[in-house]
Write a structure and sequence with these properties.
This protein is mainly α. It has 12 helices and no strands. The longest helix is centred in the C-terminal third of the chain and has 89 residues. The protein is elongated, with a radius of gyration of 35 Å. The model has no long low-confidence stretch (mean pLDDT 80).
Length: 287
Amino acid sequence: MKALCQRIIALPYFEHFIVVLIAINSIILGLETSTFLTTSYDSWFLLAHQLILAVFILEAIIKITAVAPQWKKYFGDGWNLFDFSIIILSLIPATGQFAMIARLVRLLRILRLVSAIPELRLIVSTLIRSIPSMGHVLILSGILFYIYGILGYHLFHKHDPELWGSFGLSLLTLFRVITLEDWTDVMYVAMDLNPYSWIYFVSFVVLGTFVVINLFIAIVLNNLQDAKVDEQDAEKQALATSVEAIHAEVAVAKEEDLQVAQLLDQIKVTQQKLIDLQSQLEKKLKE
């Protein structure tokens, strides 16, 4: 049974089938937003959800059986644990007080596309690895916001109290500027007070947008490369493990073949003894 499950998982079409199933589930969730379709085909939608959930449960059983009894190989993988958690949550009844929770859990199934597609897993792993390094960039951007927020308040709060009337409003305005959404309108209002106000805004855009964002990009790219290396190492380790398992099977097969060969030799020797004994008996009968 374990060998059969391992062969199923190794099939190239197995993961493709799961990806297609997740995509179909996503389409159904989108169709359920139509009142007309829900009214007409609600029972069919429910049946489709139950069938898809049944396939997901079967998939988990196959993967768990394939690594039995070494359960850590399945539950020690974060992506497998994520998929298993979604399956458990999907078992919540879709009626009564849990109906809304069940619908929200169905939406989580769409996230299974991330765990099913290796390229998406790599991107998410990269983002997670980048979080500690991003903390230092966030501290740097926080200092930048703090300095420019106080400076903006003192420069423009009397002229434009709607945007700079308090320190909190100044921070919100700076956030609007750093998103590059109509930031020039804010700058032109400030330039009515002082034509050199553009220096404040341009310097903040250069430092806040181009420098800080580029630092984020650099961190992500660096961690992306590290994640690729780790993934390649994991693939090499998995391949080495598979090769060792194959060698072990070959050794066992050779040992079994040797035992069979020895048994055949013993059978031949026994047959020869029987022939010799029969010859001796025939000679004695003739005498």
